[in-house]
Protein backbone atom coordinates (compact mmCIF):
# COMPACT_ATOMS: atom_id res chain seq x y z
CA UNK A 1 0.00 0.00 0.00
CA UNK A 2 2.80 2.40 0.92
CA UNK A 3 4.64 1.55 -2.30
CA UNK A 4 1.54 2.36 -4.39
CA UNK A 5 1.09 5.63 -2.53
CA UNK A 6 4.75 6.53 -3.18
CA UNK A 7 4.39 5.72 -6.90
CA UNK A 8 1.28 7.88 -7.22
CA UNK A 9 3.01 10.72 -5.40
CA UNK A 10 5.99 10.41 -7.75
CA UNK A 11 3.70 10.54 -10.81
CA UNK A 12 2.02 13.67 -9.43
CA UNK A 13 5.35 15.42 -8.78
CA UNK A 14 6.73 14.50 -12.23
CA UNK A 15 3.64 15.99 -13.90
CA UNK A 16 4.05 19.17 -11.88
CA UNK A 17 7.69 19.40 -13.00
CA UNK A 18 6.62 18.89 -16.63
CA UNK A 19 4.16 21.78 -16.31
CA UNK A 20 6.90 23.91 -14.81
CA UNK A 21 9.48 23.19 -17.51
CA UNK A 22 7.04 23.20 -20.43
CA UNK A 23 7.59 19.53 -21.32
CA UNK A 24 3.88 19.10 -21.88
CA UNK A 25 4.14 15.90 -23.94
CA UNK A 26 5.15 14.05 -20.78
CA UNK A 27 1.77 14.86 -19.20
CA UNK A 28 -1.09 12.45 -19.79
CA UNK A 29 -3.81 14.76 -21.08
CA UNK A 30 -7.37 14.34 -22.34
CA UNK A 31 -8.28 13.65 -25.94
CA UNK A 32 -10.42 16.30 -27.66
CA UNK A 33 -13.43 13.95 -27.84
CA UNK A 34 -13.29 13.47 -24.05
CA UNK A 35 -14.41 17.07 -23.49
CA UNK A 36 -18.10 17.98 -23.37
CA UNK A 37 -19.35 18.91 -26.83
CA UNK A 38 -20.20 22.49 -25.83
CA UNK A 39 -16.62 23.00 -24.57
CA UNK A 40 -14.70 21.44 -27.48
CA UNK A 41 -16.89 23.23 -30.07
CA UNK A 42 -16.73 26.58 -28.28
CA UNK A 43 -15.25 29.30 -30.57
CA UNK A 44 -12.58 30.09 -27.97
CA UNK A 45 -11.60 26.42 -27.75
CA UNK A 46 -11.26 26.17 -31.53
CA UNK A 47 -9.42 29.46 -32.06
CA UNK A 48 -7.09 29.20 -29.07
CA UNK A 49 -6.54 25.41 -29.17
CA UNK A 50 -7.81 25.10 -25.60
CA UNK A 51 -9.10 21.52 -25.74
CA UNK A 52 -6.33 19.89 -27.78
CA UNK A 53 -3.96 17.43 -26.11
CA UNK A 54 -1.42 20.22 -25.70
CA UNK A 55 -3.98 22.96 -25.00
CA UNK A 56 -4.18 25.01 -21.81
CA UNK A 57 -7.31 23.32 -20.47
CA UNK A 58 -5.66 19.92 -20.88
CA UNK A 59 -2.24 20.80 -19.54
CA UNK A 60 -3.38 22.57 -16.37
CA UNK A 61 -6.47 20.50 -15.60
CA UNK A 62 -6.08 19.08 -12.10
CA UNK A 63 -9.77 18.67 -11.32
CA UNK A 64 -11.00 15.34 -10.01
CA UNK A 65 -14.74 15.88 -9.50
CA UNK A 66 -17.20 15.72 -12.39
CA UNK A 67 -18.91 18.97 -11.39
CA UNK A 68 -15.60 20.70 -10.59
CA UNK A 69 -14.34 19.89 -14.08
CA UNK A 70 -17.46 21.45 -15.62
CA UNK A 71 -17.12 24.58 -13.49
CA UNK A 72 -13.42 24.83 -14.42
CA UNK A 73 -14.31 24.80 -18.12
CA UNK A 74 -17.10 27.37 -17.73
CA UNK A 75 -14.93 29.62 -15.61
CA UNK A 76 -12.12 29.74 -18.16
CA UNK A 77 -14.43 30.05 -21.18
CA UNK A 78 -16.26 32.93 -19.45
CA UNK A 79 -19.55 31.06 -19.63
CA UNK A 80 -22.37 31.92 -17.18
CA UNK A 81 -22.60 29.74 -14.09
CA UNK A 82 -26.06 28.33 -13.44
CA UNK A 83 -25.00 26.92 -10.06
CA UNK A 84 -24.77 30.13 -8.02
CA UNK A 85 -23.47 28.35 -4.94
CA UNK A 86 -20.44 27.21 -6.96
CA UNK A 87 -19.53 30.72 -8.13
CA UNK A 88 -16.13 31.75 -6.74
CA UNK A 89 -14.92 35.21 -5.87
CA UNK A 90 -12.25 36.33 -8.35
CA UNK A 91 -10.05 37.38 -5.39
CA UNK A 92 -10.14 33.89 -3.86
CA UNK A 93 -7.10 32.62 -5.77
CA UNK A 94 -5.22 35.84 -5.08
CA UNK A 95 -5.84 35.54 -1.34
CA UNK A 96 -4.74 31.91 -1.31
CA UNK A 97 -1.47 32.55 -3.11
CA UNK A 98 -0.66 35.59 -0.98
CA UNK A 99 -1.35 33.91 2.36
CA UNK A 100 0.00 30.44 1.60
CA UNK A 101 1.55 29.88 -1.85
CA UNK A 102 2.01 26.13 -1.28
CA UNK A 103 -1.65 25.63 -0.23
CA UNK A 104 -2.66 24.64 -3.75
CA UNK A 105 0.15 22.10 -4.02
CA UNK A 106 -0.66 20.41 -0.71
CA UNK A 107 -4.37 20.36 -1.40
CA UNK A 108 -3.78 18.93 -4.89
CA UNK A 109 -1.97 16.02 -3.27
CA UNK A 110 -5.11 15.35 -1.23
CA UNK A 111 -7.13 15.33 -4.45
CA UNK A 112 -4.80 13.58 -6.86
CA UNK A 113 -2.71 11.11 -4.89
CA UNK A 114 -5.65 8.74 -4.13
CA UNK A 115 -5.68 5.73 -6.43
CA UNK A 116 -7.11 6.97 -9.74
CA UNK A 117 -6.27 7.16 -13.40
CA UNK A 118 -5.02 10.51 -14.65
CA UNK A 119 -7.92 12.72 -15.82
CA UNK A 120 -10.48 10.42 -14.18
CA UNK A 121 -13.40 12.38 -12.73
CA UNK A 122 -15.48 11.22 -9.78
CA UNK A 123 -18.98 11.93 -8.61
CA UNK A 124 -19.45 13.78 -5.33
CA UNK A 125 -23.23 13.99 -4.87
CA UNK A 126 -25.19 16.40 -2.75
CA UNK A 127 -27.46 15.07 -0.01
CA UNK A 128 -31.05 15.14 -1.14
CA UNK A 129 -33.10 16.34 1.85
CA UNK A 130 -36.43 15.37 0.29
CA UNK A 131 -37.77 12.17 1.84
CA UNK A 132 -40.11 10.79 -0.82
CA UNK A 133 -39.77 7.18 0.34
CA UNK A 134 -41.39 7.64 3.74
CA UNK A 135 -43.90 10.23 2.49
CA UNK A 136 -45.65 7.48 0.56
CA UNK A 137 -45.38 5.01 3.45
CA UNK A 138 -46.18 6.89 6.66
CA UNK A 139 -47.95 3.87 8.19
CA UNK A 140 -45.02 1.60 7.30
CA UNK A 141 -42.56 4.00 8.95
CA UNK A 142 -44.23 3.54 12.34
CA UNK A 143 -45.15 -0.11 11.82
CA UNK A 144 -41.91 -1.65 10.47
CA UNK A 145 -39.75 -1.38 13.65
CA UNK A 146 -42.25 -3.46 15.62
CA UNK A 147 -42.96 -5.88 12.80
CA UNK A 148 -39.31 -6.08 11.76
CA UNK A 149 -38.33 -6.97 15.34
CA UNK A 150 -41.15 -9.44 16.04
CA UNK A 151 -40.83 -11.31 12.72
CA UNK A 152 -37.38 -12.88 13.32
CA UNK A 153 -38.23 -13.53 16.99
CA UNK A 154 -41.41 -15.36 16.03
CA UNK A 155 -39.61 -17.31 13.27
CA UNK A 156 -36.88 -18.46 15.69
CA UNK A 157 -39.44 -19.42 18.32
CA UNK A 158 -41.64 -21.05 15.69
CA UNK A 159 -38.81 -23.21 14.41
CA UNK A 160 -37.89 -24.15 17.99
CA UNK A 161 -41.41 -24.92 19.22
CA UNK A 162 -43.13 -25.81 15.97
CA UNK A 163 -45.41 -22.74 15.97
CA UNK A 164 -47.86 -22.17 13.06
CA UNK A 165 -48.11 -19.32 10.52
CA UNK A 166 -44.37 -19.06 9.67
CA UNK A 167 -45.02 -19.49 5.90
CA UNK A 168 -47.78 -16.85 6.07
CA UNK A 169 -45.43 -14.48 7.91
CA UNK A 170 -42.73 -14.95 5.28
CA UNK A 171 -45.31 -14.42 2.53
CA UNK A 172 -46.48 -11.12 4.09
CA UNK A 173 -42.88 -9.93 4.42
CA UNK A 174 -42.26 -10.93 0.81
CA UNK A 175 -45.28 -8.92 -0.37
CA UNK A 176 -44.08 -5.93 1.63
CA UNK A 177 -40.57 -6.30 0.15
CA UNK A 178 -41.93 -6.38 -3.41
CA UNK A 179 -44.06 -3.27 -2.71
CA UNK A 180 -41.07 -1.12 -1.78
CA UNK A 181 -38.32 -2.91 -3.75
CA UNK A 182 -38.14 -0.45 -6.66
CA UNK A 183 -38.02 2.59 -4.33
CA UNK A 184 -35.54 0.96 -1.97
CA UNK A 185 -33.11 0.38 -4.86
CA UNK A 186 -33.05 4.17 -5.42
CA UNK A 187 -32.21 4.63 -1.74
CA UNK A 188 -29.43 2.05 -2.01
CA UNK A 189 -28.09 3.85 -5.08
CA UNK A 190 -27.90 7.08 -3.06
CA UNK A 191 -26.20 5.25 -0.19
CA UNK A 192 -23.58 3.81 -2.54
CA UNK A 193 -22.95 7.18 -4.20
CA UNK A 194 -22.53 8.96 -0.84
CA UNK A 195 -20.38 6.16 0.55
CA UNK A 196 -18.17 6.14 -2.55
CA UNK A 197 -17.76 9.92 -2.37
CA UNK A 198 -16.93 9.74 1.35
CA UNK A 199 -14.29 7.09 0.73
CA UNK A 200 -12.76 8.83 -2.27
CA UNK A 201 -12.62 12.30 -0.69
CA UNK A 202 -12.12 11.32 2.94
CA UNK A 203 -8.80 13.17 3.31
CA UNK A 204 -10.16 16.23 1.53
CA UNK A 205 -13.29 16.34 3.71
CA UNK A 206 -11.19 16.26 6.86
CA UNK A 207 -8.60 18.69 5.48
CA UNK A 208 -11.21 21.35 4.68
CA UNK A 209 -13.46 20.77 7.71
CA UNK A 210 -13.55 23.05 10.73
CA UNK A 211 -15.05 20.33 12.93
CA UNK A 212 -12.82 17.39 12.09
CA UNK A 213 -14.18 14.99 14.71
CA UNK A 214 -17.78 15.47 13.52
CA UNK A 215 -16.64 15.13 9.90
CA UNK A 216 -14.87 11.86 10.68
CA UNK A 217 -18.06 10.56 12.31
CA UNK A 218 -20.07 11.60 9.24
CA UNK A 219 -17.70 9.74 6.91
CA UNK A 220 -17.50 6.68 9.16
CA UNK A 221 -21.27 6.23 9.39
CA UNK A 222 -22.04 6.64 5.69
CA UNK A 223 -19.12 4.36 4.81
CA UNK A 224 -20.51 1.73 7.17
CA UNK A 225 -23.92 2.07 5.51
CA UNK A 226 -22.23 1.74 2.14
CA UNK A 227 -20.62 -1.53 3.22
CA UNK A 228 -24.12 -2.93 3.76
CA UNK A 229 -24.90 -2.32 0.09
CA UNK A 230 -22.48 -5.10 -0.85
CA UNK A 231 -25.29 -7.54 -0.03
CA UNK A 232 -27.17 -6.33 -3.11
CA UNK A 233 -24.61 -8.18 -5.22
CA UNK A 234 -25.97 -11.46 -3.78
CA UNK A 235 -29.75 -11.43 -4.41
CA UNK A 236 -30.54 -14.52 -2.31
CA UNK A 237 -29.05 -13.31 1.04
CA UNK A 238 -30.59 -9.89 0.39
CA UNK A 239 -34.02 -11.45 -0.16
CA UNK A 240 -33.73 -13.65 2.94
CA UNK A 241 -32.83 -10.68 5.17
CA UNK A 242 -35.87 -8.75 3.93
CA UNK A 243 -38.14 -11.77 4.44
CA UNK A 244 -36.85 -12.16 7.99
CA UNK A 245 -36.72 -8.57 9.25
CA UNK A 246 -37.49 -6.04 6.45
CA UNK A 247 -33.75 -5.29 6.29
CA UNK A 248 -33.94 -2.55 3.61
CA UNK A 249 -36.27 -0.46 5.78
CA UNK A 250 -33.81 -0.46 8.69
CA UNK A 251 -31.04 0.77 6.40
CA UNK A 252 -33.26 3.41 4.78
CA UNK A 253 -34.14 4.67 8.25
CA UNK A 254 -30.42 4.78 9.09
CA UNK A 255 -29.86 6.88 5.97
CA UNK A 256 -32.62 9.26 7.06
CA UNK A 257 -31.06 9.63 10.53
CA UNK A 258 -27.66 10.25 8.94
CA UNK A 259 -29.13 12.96 6.73
CA UNK A 260 -30.81 14.66 9.67
CA UNK A 261 -27.57 14.75 11.63
CA UNK A 262 -24.94 15.28 8.93
CA UNK A 263 -26.80 16.39 5.76
CA UNK A 264 -26.10 20.11 6.13
CA UNK A 265 -22.44 19.52 7.00
CA UNK A 266 -22.02 17.20 4.01
CA UNK A 267 -23.58 19.70 1.59
CA UNK A 268 -21.47 22.58 2.91
CA UNK A 269 -18.27 20.57 2.50
CA UNK A 270 -19.38 19.15 -0.85
CA UNK A 271 -19.81 22.68 -2.25
CA UNK A 272 -16.48 23.72 -0.74
CA UNK A 273 -14.69 20.72 -2.27
CA UNK A 274 -16.16 21.28 -5.74
CA UNK A 275 -15.44 25.03 -5.65
CA UNK A 276 -11.89 24.35 -4.49
CA UNK A 277 -11.48 21.65 -7.11
CA UNK A 278 -12.62 24.01 -9.87
CA UNK A 279 -10.19 26.83 -9.05
CA UNK A 280 -7.18 24.72 -8.02
CA UNK A 281 -5.86 24.54 -11.61
CA UNK A 282 -5.55 28.35 -11.61
CA UNK A 283 -4.10 28.52 -8.09
CA UNK A 284 -1.62 25.80 -9.07
CA UNK A 285 -0.66 27.83 -12.15
CA UNK A 286 0.23 30.73 -9.84
CA UNK A 287 2.15 28.39 -7.53
CA UNK A 288 4.20 26.95 -10.41
CA UNK A 289 5.04 30.40 -11.77
CA UNK A 290 5.72 32.75 -8.83
CA UNK A 291 6.91 35.36 -11.34
CA UNK A 292 3.32 35.71 -12.57
CA UNK A 293 1.25 38.72 -11.49
CA UNK A 294 -2.43 39.38 -10.91
CA UNK A 295 -4.24 41.67 -13.29
CA UNK A 296 -6.33 44.65 -12.21
CA UNK A 297 -9.71 45.86 -13.40
CA UNK A 298 -9.47 49.17 -15.23
CA UNK A 299 -11.94 51.79 -13.96
CA UNK A 300 -11.88 53.53 -17.38
CA UNK A 301 -12.52 50.33 -19.34
CA UNK A 302 -9.08 50.29 -20.98
CA UNK A 303 -6.87 47.30 -21.77
CA UNK A 304 -3.08 47.48 -21.42
CA UNK A 305 0.02 45.68 -20.16
CA UNK A 306 3.65 46.49 -19.58
CA UNK A 307 4.48 42.97 -20.78
CA UNK A 308 2.78 39.64 -21.45
CA UNK A 309 3.45 36.27 -23.03
CA UNK A 310 1.50 33.13 -23.95
CA UNK A 311 1.26 30.85 -20.88
CA UNK A 312 2.07 27.68 -22.86
CA UNK A 313 5.42 28.88 -24.17
CA UNK A 314 8.33 27.18 -22.35
CA UNK A 315 10.53 29.47 -20.27
CA UNK A 316 13.37 29.14 -22.76
CA UNK A 317 11.15 30.37 -25.64
CA UNK A 318 9.29 33.22 -23.93
CA UNK A 319 9.43 36.64 -25.50
CA UNK A 320 7.49 39.24 -23.53
CA UNK A 321 5.77 42.02 -25.45
CA UNK A 322 3.96 45.16 -24.25
CA UNK A 323 0.32 45.96 -24.97
CA UNK A 324 -0.31 49.62 -25.67
CA UNK A 325 -3.30 51.16 -23.94
CA UNK A 326 -6.50 50.30 -25.78
CA UNK A 327 -9.66 52.26 -25.00
CA UNK A 328 -13.21 51.20 -25.97
CA UNK A 329 -13.55 51.80 -29.72
CA UNK A 330 -9.81 51.41 -30.41
CA UNK A 331 -8.42 49.27 -33.21
CA UNK A 332 -4.95 47.71 -33.36
CA UNK A 333 -3.75 46.43 -36.73
CA UNK A 334 -0.76 44.09 -36.58
CA UNK A 335 1.14 43.44 -39.80
CA UNK A 336 4.23 41.39 -40.45
CA UNK A 337 5.78 38.56 -42.38
CA UNK A 338 4.82 34.92 -42.02
CA UNK A 339 5.84 33.11 -38.80
CA UNK A 340 6.97 36.38 -37.21
CA UNK A 341 4.58 36.14 -34.24
CA UNK A 342 1.40 38.08 -35.18
CA UNK A 343 -1.14 35.38 -34.32
CA UNK A 344 0.78 34.27 -31.23
CA UNK A 345 0.65 37.86 -29.99
CA UNK A 346 -3.14 37.96 -30.39
CA UNK A 347 -3.45 34.62 -28.61
CA UNK A 348 -1.17 35.86 -25.81
CA UNK A 349 -3.52 38.79 -25.14
CA UNK A 350 -6.62 36.58 -25.38
CA UNK A 351 -5.16 33.94 -23.03
CA UNK A 352 -4.10 36.63 -20.55
CA UNK A 353 -7.66 37.97 -20.60
CA UNK A 354 -9.12 34.51 -19.96
CA UNK A 355 -6.70 33.92 -17.08
CA UNK A 356 -7.48 37.33 -15.58
CA UNK A 357 -11.22 36.73 -16.00
CA UNK A 358 -10.83 33.40 -14.19
CA UNK A 359 -9.15 35.12 -11.25
CA UNK A 360 -5.77 33.59 -12.08
CA UNK A 361 -2.44 35.42 -12.38
CA UNK A 362 -0.97 36.10 -15.84
CA UNK A 363 2.55 35.82 -17.18
CA UNK A 364 3.31 39.51 -17.51
CA UNK A 365 3.32 42.80 -15.65
CA UNK A 366 0.79 45.58 -15.01
CA UNK A 367 -2.04 43.97 -16.94
CA UNK A 368 -5.19 46.10 -16.76
CA UNK A 369 -8.44 44.95 -18.28
CA UNK A 370 -12.10 46.01 -18.37
CA UNK A 371 -15.25 44.03 -17.68
CA UNK A 372 -15.08 42.25 -20.99
CA UNK A 373 -16.80 39.92 -23.38
CA UNK A 374 -14.25 38.12 -25.52
CA UNK A 375 -14.70 37.05 -29.16
CA UNK A 376 -12.20 35.38 -31.46
CA UNK A 377 -12.18 34.74 -35.19
CA UNK A 378 -8.83 33.11 -35.80
CA UNK A 379 -9.66 29.72 -37.26
CA UNK A 380 -12.76 29.59 -39.46
CA UNK A 381 -14.33 26.26 -40.33
CA UNK A 382 -16.41 25.28 -43.31
CA UNK A 383 -19.09 22.60 -43.22
CA UNK A 384 -19.80 20.18 -46.06
CA UNK A 385 -22.84 18.92 -44.17
CA UNK A 386 -24.44 22.36 -43.93
CA UNK A 387 -23.06 23.58 -47.25
CA UNK A 388 -21.23 26.46 -45.51
CA UNK A 389 -18.02 27.88 -47.02
CA UNK A 390 -15.14 29.40 -45.07
CA UNK A 391 -16.25 32.87 -46.16
CA UNK A 392 -19.88 32.39 -45.17
CA UNK A 393 -18.81 30.80 -41.89
CA UNK A 394 -16.77 33.93 -41.09
CA UNK A 395 -19.62 36.25 -42.08
CA UNK A 396 -22.05 34.42 -39.80
CA UNK A 397 -19.59 34.55 -36.89
CA UNK A 398 -18.96 38.28 -37.42
CA UNK A 399 -22.69 38.99 -37.63
CA UNK A 400 -23.28 37.12 -34.37
CA UNK A 401 -20.42 39.02 -32.68
CA UNK A 402 -21.81 42.41 -33.79
CA UNK A 403 -25.34 41.54 -32.63
CA UNK A 404 -23.98 40.27 -29.33
CA UNK A 405 -22.03 43.50 -28.82
CA UNK A 406 -25.26 45.50 -29.06
CA UNK A 407 -26.86 43.74 -26.10
CA UNK A 408 -23.77 43.42 -23.91
CA UNK A 409 -23.02 45.80 -21.04
CA UNK A 410 -19.43 44.57 -21.03
CA UNK A 411 -16.70 45.84 -23.36
CA UNK A 412 -16.49 43.55 -26.42
CA UNK A 413 -12.87 42.58 -27.16
CA UNK A 414 -12.30 40.99 -30.57
CA UNK A 415 -9.34 39.09 -31.98
CA UNK A 416 -9.51 38.83 -35.77
CA UNK A 417 -6.84 37.01 -37.78
CA UNK A 418 -6.81 37.61 -41.55
CA UNK A 419 -10.60 37.80 -41.81
CA UNK A 420 -12.67 37.39 -45.00
CA UNK A 421 -9.95 35.47 -46.82
CA UNK A 422 -12.54 33.82 -49.06
CA UNK A 423 -13.19 36.81 -51.35
CA UNK A 424 -11.24 39.11 -53.68
CA UNK A 425 -8.94 41.81 -52.29
CA UNK A 426 -11.13 44.75 -53.33
CA UNK A 427 -14.31 43.47 -51.69
CA UNK A 428 -12.35 42.20 -48.68
CA UNK A 429 -10.95 45.69 -48.03
CA UNK A 430 -14.37 47.38 -48.31
CA UNK A 431 -16.11 44.74 -46.16
CA UNK A 432 -13.39 44.70 -43.49
CA UNK A 433 -13.32 48.52 -43.30
CA UNK A 434 -17.10 48.67 -42.82
CA UNK A 435 -17.08 45.89 -40.20
CA UNK A 436 -14.35 47.70 -38.27
CA UNK A 437 -16.35 50.94 -38.47
CA UNK A 438 -19.42 49.24 -37.01
CA UNK A 439 -17.35 47.68 -34.24
CA UNK A 440 -15.90 51.09 -33.41
CA UNK A 441 -19.44 52.44 -33.03
CA UNK A 442 -20.17 49.54 -30.64
CA UNK A 443 -17.15 50.65 -28.54
CA UNK A 444 -15.43 47.34 -29.14
CA UNK A 445 -11.68 46.92 -28.69
CA UNK A 446 -10.42 45.17 -31.83
CA UNK A 447 -7.14 43.42 -32.63
CA UNK A 448 -6.63 42.56 -36.30
CA UNK A 449 -3.72 40.84 -38.04
CA UNK A 450 -3.41 41.23 -41.78
CA UNK A 451 -1.06 40.99 -44.74
CA UNK A 452 -3.14 43.60 -46.56
CA UNK A 453 -1.13 46.77 -46.02
CA UNK A 454 -3.98 48.87 -47.40
CA UNK A 455 -6.02 48.03 -44.30
CA UNK A 456 -3.29 49.58 -42.18
CA UNK A 457 -4.22 52.94 -43.72
CA UNK A 458 -7.49 53.03 -41.73
CA UNK A 459 -7.09 56.41 -39.97
CA UNK A 460 -8.14 55.47 -36.43
CA UNK A 461 -5.98 52.32 -36.27
CA UNK A 462 -2.99 51.87 -33.98
CA UNK A 463 -0.31 50.22 -36.14
CA UNK A 464 2.22 47.66 -34.98
CA UNK A 465 4.21 44.94 -36.71
CA UNK A 466 6.49 41.95 -36.39
CA UNK A 467 9.31 41.22 -38.81
CA UNK A 468 12.03 38.74 -39.72
CA UNK A 469 15.76 39.40 -39.51
CA UNK A 470 18.53 38.27 -41.84
CA UNK A 471 21.18 36.22 -40.04
CA UNK A 472 23.93 34.53 -42.06
CA UNK A 473 21.66 34.55 -45.09
CA UNK A 474 18.88 32.85 -43.18
CA UNK A 475 15.58 34.14 -41.82
CA UNK A 476 15.57 34.71 -38.07
CA UNK A 477 12.79 35.98 -35.80
CA UNK A 478 13.03 37.85 -32.51
CA UNK A 479 9.21 37.92 -32.03
CA UNK A 480 9.35 41.50 -30.75
CA UNK A 481 6.49 43.86 -31.55
CA UNK A 482 7.44 47.16 -33.19
CA UNK A 483 5.62 50.42 -33.99
CA UNK A 484 4.34 51.08 -37.47
CA UNK A 485 3.57 48.96 -40.52
CA UNK A 486 5.74 46.06 -41.65
CA UNK A 487 8.00 46.86 -44.60
CA UNK A 488 9.11 43.30 -45.27
CA UNK A 489 7.63 40.09 -46.64
CA UNK A 490 8.96 36.58 -46.69
CA UNK A 491 6.46 34.45 -48.63
CA UNK A 492 8.76 34.06 -51.66
CA UNK A 493 11.75 33.30 -49.45
CA UNK A 494 9.82 30.51 -47.75
CA UNK A 495 8.77 29.06 -51.13
CA UNK A 496 12.34 29.07 -52.39
CA UNK A 497 13.64 27.56 -49.15
CA UNK A 498 11.24 24.65 -49.59
CA UNK A 499 12.45 24.05 -53.16
CA UNK A 500 9.63 25.74 -55.11
CA UNK A 501 11.18 27.77 -57.95
CA UNK A 502 10.20 31.43 -58.36
CA UNK A 503 11.20 32.31 -61.96
CA UNK A 504 9.84 35.86 -62.24
CA UNK A 505 10.50 37.32 -58.81
CA UNK A 506 10.86 40.87 -60.21
CA UNK A 507 7.19 40.93 -61.20
UniProtKB/TrEMBL annotation:
Residues 329-504 form the DNA mismatch repair proteins mutS family domain. InterPro entries: DNA_mismatch_repair_MutS_C (IPR000432), MutS (IPR045076), P-loop_NTPase (IPR027417). The chain crosses the membrane at residues 139-157. Pfam families: MutS_V (PF00488). Keywords: ATP-binding, DNA-binding, Membrane, Nucleotide-binding, Transmembrane, Transmembrane helix. The keyword ATP-binding applies. GO terms for cellular component: cytosol. Coiled coil: none annotated. This is AAA family ATPase. It comes from Leptospira bourretii.
Amino acid sequence: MQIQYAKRTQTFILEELSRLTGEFKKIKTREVWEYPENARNHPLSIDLDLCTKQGFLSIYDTTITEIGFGVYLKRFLQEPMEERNLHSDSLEIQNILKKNPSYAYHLLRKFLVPDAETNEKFSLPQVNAEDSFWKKRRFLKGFYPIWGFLSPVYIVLGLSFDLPLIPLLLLLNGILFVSYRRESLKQWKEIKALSSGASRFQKTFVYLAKERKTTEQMIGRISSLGDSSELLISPLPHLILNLLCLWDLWKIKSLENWKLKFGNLWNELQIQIIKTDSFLPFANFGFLFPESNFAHLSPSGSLSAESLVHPLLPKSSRVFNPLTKMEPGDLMIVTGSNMSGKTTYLRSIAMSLLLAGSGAPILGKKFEYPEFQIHTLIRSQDSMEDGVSFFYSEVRRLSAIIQNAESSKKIPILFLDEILKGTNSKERFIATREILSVLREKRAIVFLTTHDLKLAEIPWAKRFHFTELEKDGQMDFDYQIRDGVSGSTNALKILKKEGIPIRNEEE
